[in-house]
Each structure stands twice: as C-alpha cells, then as structure tokens.
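Late entry, glutathione complex.
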Amino acid sequence: MPDSVAGMKVYGLDLSYFTGKFEAFIRYREIPHQRIELSASSMRHVARKTGLAQMPAVELPDGRWMSDSTPMIEWLDAAWPGPAVIPADPLQRFFSQLLEDYADEWLWRPALHYRWSYQPDARLMSHRIAAEMLHDVPGPLWMRRAAIYRRQLRKYVHGDGITAATRAHVESIYLRNLRWLDAIFATRPFLLGARPTLADFGFFASMFRHFGLDPTPARIMRDAAPNVYEWLARMWNAKASRVDGDVLPAGTIPHDWHPILIDAGRCYLPYLNANARAWREGQKTFDVEIEGCRYHLPVHRYRVWCLERLQALYRATPEAGALLDDTGCLAALRETASPASGFDPERRAPFFEAGRVWA
Ligand SMILES: N[C@@H](CCC(=O)N[C@@H](CS)C(=O)NCC(=O)O)C(=O)O
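Prediction complete; structure with ligand written out below:
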C-alpha cells in the first residue's frame, strides 16, 4: 500500500482552507509527496479527473485521483504506516469526527466573511489569487483581480447569508471558537493530548489559512488567543515520528470540548437539518434561525452528505449517546430520517467518479 501512495501529487493553493488542512496532515504523517500549485487550467484538469472542481486533489502514482480532504485523510491514515490521527478508541473517534465536521463546515462562513468583507483582507487575497492561481488567465492583473473579488463576494458573502443583520452572529462563531480553543491549548499541546488527532486538522483548516493569515482575523487571534497562534505553528511543524506522548486515556472526552459540542448541537446540527429538509423539498435556498438570528442560505448538497455521514457514524457508535444527549446533539442528530443526499451513492469517496462535476 505505501508504494501506491509515496510520491503522490497534491494539487492545491498556498492560501486555501482545505489544502492547508490536508497539507498539515500529510506533513505530520510524513507521506512523501509533491506539492503542485494550481492554475486556472490545472484546476479544470482536476475537475475533469475527480468530478469535483475543488482543492485539494491528489493524483496517486498509480494514476488514481482522489478528492475531499475528509475521506482522503481517512483513506491515507489507514494506508500509511505509523500512528494514525483518527483515534482507535470508538468514543474518541466519533467525537473527533464530529468536531472535524463542525470545524470544516461551520467555520467556513466566518472564514470567508473575514477574507472577503474586510477591505485590507480582500485587497490582499484578490491580488494573490489573481497573480498566483489566475496567472494563466488572459487580461491585465487588475481585471483578474476585480473579477475574482466580485465572484468571491457574490458567492461566499452575499450568496452565503452574510448581511448587516447576520454579520455580528457570523463573527461570533469565530470569536467563541477562539476562546474555547485558547483555553484548551493553554493546558495541552493538541485537542486530545500530546498528539494531533483528526479534530486538530479540522480546526486547522480555517485557523491556519484564513484566521491566522488574513490581516483582520489574524490580529484578533494574536491579541485574544496567543495559545491558538502558537498551536498553528506547532501543528505545521508536527511530525508523527517525533511527537512524544499520547492522547488522553481511551474513553475520555475532555470536559473543555463540551462548549464546542454544545455549539454543534445548538447551531451547526440544526443548520444541517434545515439544509437537508430544503434539499429534500427540492429548494435552492432556505431560511433558518440560529440563536435568534435569521439566515437566508443556499442549499448545500455536500452538507446533506455530512449529516448522513454523522448519522451513520453515530449508529456505529451507540456508546456516544450519553454525551451527545448531555450536550444537546442527540435529538438534532436524529431529527432528519434518511437525508438522501445522493452525493456518493456507490460509496467511492475519496475516489469520486470522474467527469461529473458537482462544484
Ligand atoms: N469538502 C472539501 C471542500 C474543498 C473546498 O471547498 N475547497 C475550496 C478551497 S479551500 C475550493 O476548492 N473552492 C473552489 C471554489 O471556490 O470554487 C474538502 O474537504 O476538501
């Protein structure tokens, strides 16, 4: 198996949320690879090969292609020798997967908001994307820059429920997570102890390539959460062969994870349910109220699949029921019977069907 992995090509961008998450994982697991910075034309090539116009994507030495950081990490974690990032203990595994999913998907909106709603951040990032990824698109730099800025604002700010009425709530998602994570990293190096686990990589996505990099949220992080800032560098430089120590004893979910789990039960899972209901009814957009804040949002098929996966993981881990109940997640997790995303009907992830472009 390692032979079919070593030397894999990883396509992504130095400023991308999910590329950063995946890179941190392969750096930690010390998987030899070649990093390829995407251009507009190589992105089209990736989309044709994986069926998904998204990064990161991987081309294995045997010619197979993979996409989607979560199933790629799952597959590689099992295939590559060494200490896995997915905990062996079923309870720790389930809650790491829940935290990873929450971090991947629920921190996306604030991350994109800070990048594209604040002028200094948007100026910097539109310049970088235009000069780096879009270097092979014809036209002057200022025009490529204006085009990417308009596209990101339309898709990820105005098109993703961010308005004057929701803005403070969106920002509070970042600020509360900073507070919780800072308290955790003040007491131990990684979320579950002395080694990084799946949940660390989930939070790393937004914290490294957006919140820790973009001027506006990075300043907030340096001022309010220096332990999180330090953890970013620790994650980037962590190597499985060098890390000394282990995760907390099997069956232990640290108490300082509870505020995050409670937030998943109060905000994220109700959002996933509303999104899944809208998907079933064939809607393109839907309204949902989260903590008294009313959002108008696009239906997100991938996140119907997220709900489906979380439900399947829970069914396989009934011992998670007590803590899920205590943190208000259980009812929300059971609310939508058969979300039926149809996203990966043949269960091929991370080897998606080429030629069918979803995003
Ligand atoms: N679920 C995917 C999401 C990948 C994703 O959304 N990547 C972003 C960049 S961080 C992307 O490719 N966006 C393409 C776009 O903006 O059109 C994963 O975990 O890899």
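The chain is about 55% helix and 10% strand. Will revisit in the morning.
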